[in-house]
Amino acid sequence: MTSDLARPEGLDKVTGAARYAGDHHPEGLLHAWPVPTTVARGDITGVDTAAALAIPGVVAVLSHRDAPVLTLPADGDPTLAVLQSPRVAHRGEVAALVVAETPQDARAGAEAVRIGYAAEPHDVVLTDDHPGLYTPEKANGGYPAVRTHGDFDHAYQQADVRIDRTYRIGPLHNHPMEPHTATARWADGRLTVHDSSQGGNNVQETLAALFGVAPQDVLVISEHVGGGFGSKGTTRPHVVLAAMAALHVGRPVRLALPRAQLPALTGHRSPTVHRLRLGADDGGRLAALAHEVVTRSSTVREFVEQAAVPARVMYAAPHSRTSHRVVRQDVPTPSWMRAPGETPGMFALECAMDELAEACGLDPVDLRLRNEPAVEPDSGRPFSSRHLVECLREGARRFDWAGERARGPRREGAWLLGCGVAASTYPVLVSPSTAEAVALPDGTFLVRTNATDIGTGARAALTGIAAEALGVPADRVGVAIGRTDLPRAPLAGGSSGTASWGWAVHEACTGLRRTLAERGTAPLPAEGLRHLADTTGAVKAGREYARHAFGAQFVRVAVDADTGEVRLRRLLGVFAAGRILNERTARSQLVGGMIMGVSMALLEHSTMDREFGDHAERDLAAYHVAANADIPSVEAHWIEEEDAHLNPMGSKGIGEIGIVGTAAAVANAVHHATGVRVRDLPVRPELLLDALPG
Q: Alpha-carbon distance 113 to 528, whole Å?
């Protein structure tokens, strides 16, 4: 049964007892501050540290001239080769690192370091026809960059109704509440790191390789993490720099990246340009669909946002073409941001579907229902479960969609009112995991696995799974997570955490319960009775099905006819995400994702400065995200969905699907209210003003 278990760590968090990566104070702790490069391409010709070293409290200044040498594996991430070369690949790279007794001394020292450069012309402007565009072999997630079915060109030309539109989304930044922070110390050749990471085992292996030590000599602790949204899903430069500095000075070192440096050092959602072409008959049934994406990556590493992939899943179109092209530029390397691929891709696709509905004279919900596929369009595999139709219908009922559309766009004083809808999808992902369940002599149980709770409520979910599998009350179950000396587990990412860790926890607890039953009333040993589970073999099952979560978001907006300001009035989502394991944390995740989608649609705006070669909006004073006043009403609902082809819990991921589709629903609502179709995000007043009625 679905639980409503509160977070076991909730009291610790609200009272300040929960310790994050920056809350650890080993004896002799020093503080580090990075010195970012101020050119976008070129070479460092000199590092003048005299003024910095003259500041009382400054202990050392590291640069490529004297930093410890790292060993980057052939398949390693080159963005982690910090302070190893005078070459500058983008503005904001770390040119030097100041280590001092206090954060204030470190910052003052960083401001005193002088770096000389031989700058070169840089390339940072993404255009649809950039001469450096090429077709990669794969997009993020291992998806083929190009997929074709049938004869798109012929089918498109023969269609009764044709849509050919281009949508643009600028770069977006993760900005978790807790900046990327690490506290590192070496002792007897062993490294201990408290890191704000979404996956400690990945950090452990990366640091071991870079510093030439055995993985078992690296302990990574991430017991509490203050958000990540994907930016902490891979090892980031801050933890390498902290470990490097601690090795160099022989004392513990903490590095908390200044927020303004996050966009350059911790990944971002790359800008994307989407060309959507839809061809349908007079009844709105798709015959041809093309989604062609242009994006960019850095010269350091290829990362291709898989934004055309959702179009391979959503709608029945016998003739299709989906493709990605990328250009390598002198910019920071993009990376994961909540629902990479699905978030920008579904904005473009769902806006195009809205435009097709208008061209066909159909209700937008009805158009989507008419194009429901029987099997996954790209692979031909049957869906393990697909209840998008139910999400659309239930959402329309709860939102009173028919009544809203019947009333049409209307005016309320200076405000223009309208409503919009969009669908959403996210793949069901799962990775091998291990977990150990321990029965203790006092009648309690302990579950051990290196899961990471980045604010999602992982402890509550795993406690509920364990209690149900053991057949005991939840207050008899404890959960230990967030350390690499626990049984190995995958990272918190891809909405796969609970499905992956929970499967192993379920198996460990089921096995332990069986062993206890076989023992009868025999007393337990003092150290307890243990059962270890490994799901490596089991997770490979079920791949003959296409496994996805689906949802639908409905939005009402008000647009000021005089200023172009857009205000959200109501946001409602209905989702089909398998069995909901914990209503409280599930609703929190779905609501949070939808709020992030509104933020993307109306507020989040980042520009690449063509002269200086960096993102102009680098902190939360310039890069605006949604606050309480921006979100007056948001509701998350779900349908009961049984799916026997997922995992023992029957669950799908819920951390990311909430953001998918929300931005499109907002943009569609703005069009309904004003008659103005905005195809570039965010929906800014200046994009509306000239066309608004007086």
A: 56
Beta bridge partners of residue 166, listed in sequence order: 275
Which parts of 189-333 fold into alpha helices (H)?
200-211, 237-249, 262-265
Q: How far, in Å, CA of 412 to CA of 395, rounded?
A: 25
Dihedral (CA of 514, 519, 520, 526) sign = negative
Cβ–Cβ under 8 Å, residues 552 and 388: yes
What is the per-residue pLDDT for 628?
94
Cα–Cα dist 84/75, whole Å: 17
> Which CATH number is associated with domain 430-540?
3.30.365.10
Domain pair 15-121+175-265 / 430-540, same fold: no
CB 9 within 8 A of CB 214: no
C-beta separation of 569 from 557 below 8 A = yes
CB-CB contact of 7 with 460 (8 Å) = yes
Structure confidence at residue 167 (pLDDT): 98
Cis before residue 682, ω within 30 degrees of 0?
yes
Contact indicator for 227, 177 with CB cutoff of 8 Å: yes
Q: How far apart are CA 666 and CA 685, in angstroms?
A: 14
**Statement: the pTM of the whole predicted model exceeds 0.90:** yes
Average pLDDT, rounded, for the chain: 96
Tell me if 597 sits within 8 A of 17, measured CB to CB.
no
By the 8 A CB rule, do 131 and 85 touch? Answer: no
Q: At what angle do helices 662-674 and 342-360 cross, to 10 degrees?
A: 30
CATH 3.40.50.300 matches 383-428+547-694: no
CATH of domain 15-121+175-265: 3.90.1170.50
Q: Is 460 exposed, middle or buried (0-12, 13-18, 19+ CB in 10 A)?
A: buried
Coil, helix or strand at residue 209: helix
Every domain of the chain and the residues it spans = 15-121+175-265, 383-428+547-694, 430-540
pLDDT tens sequence across 468-519: 999 999 999 999 999 999 999 999 999 999 999 999 999 999 999 999 999 9
Match 């007794």 to its residue by tokens: 101
Active site residues per annotation: 656
